[in-house]
Amino acid sequence: MASEPGQLISETSTLYYKGLFLAAAAWNMFAVAALTLLSTNPTFRSEVGFPASSDAMISQLLGSCLFAFGLGYYWVSRDLSRNRDLVTLGVIGKPLVFVVFFGHAVAHDIPPLMVLPSIVDLLFGVLFLEFLVRTRGKAQ
Question: Dihedrals φ, ψ of 31, to 5°?
Answer without folding.
Answer: -65, -40
